[in-house]
Design goal:
The chain is mainly β. It has one domain: Sandwich (Jelly Rolls), CATH 2.60.120. The chain has one helix and eleven strands; from the N terminus they run H-E-E-E-E-E-E-E-E-E-E-E. Strand 4 and strand 5 form a beta hairpin.
């Protein structure tokens, strides 16, 4: 791994800019996975004092405009760190098709979702994060990290069809 360079190996795309957790809803960017072997979605949830759980679900879409969408029911691997100030370890959660960031303890958290594009339904190749809940005092930023099917000097765009 001596020659590994994150931006040269992965397609890095902002899913949603840092925003109050209650305002994200369905406004995250939709990403095309047709040229990806694997996709990771990284959530940084910053606690500002509000206790209202942040529920995350994911959808498949036929295009990046979100023309036709369907909730994904296939389970995915999930990891989490519910107190980033105390530890830097990620714990594996039970695979699921949704997860909830519990804000009771008021700690900054990192959650990682792994998606395998081979699990899309026929005719779907785009991925979309949708959230509910969240508190206006808390903030969340979301990033996509896609592993391209084929390595090249220029990684193909994931925000166009």
């Amino acid at each position: 791994m001596g020659n590994f360079s994150l931006p040269e190996v992965f397609k890095i795309v902002q899913c949603h800019e840092p925003e109050t957790a209650d305002a994200i809803d369905s406004t995250s960017d939709i990403i095309s996975c047709k040229n990806l072997k694997k996709l990771w979605v990284v959530f940084h949830h910053y606690s500002g004092g509000g206790d209202l759980d942040f529920v995350v679900t994911w959808y498949e879409c036929t295009d990046v405009a979100g023309g036709t969408t369907a909730i994904i029911t296939a389970t995915s691997p999930i990891w989490y760190n519910t107190d980033t100030s105390a530890a830097d370890l990620l714990t594996r959660a039970t695979d699921a098709a949704t997860f909830t960031i519990d804000t009771t303890l008021q700690k900054d958290q990192i959650w990682v979702l792994e998606w395998d594009p081979a699990l899309f339904s026929a005719g779907y190749d785009c991925f979309h994060i949708v959230t509910t809940g969240g508190h206006a005092s808390n903030h969340c930023s979301i990033m996509y990290f896609g592993l391209p099917r084929y390595q090249s000097d220029v990684v193909v765009s994931a925000i166009t069809d």
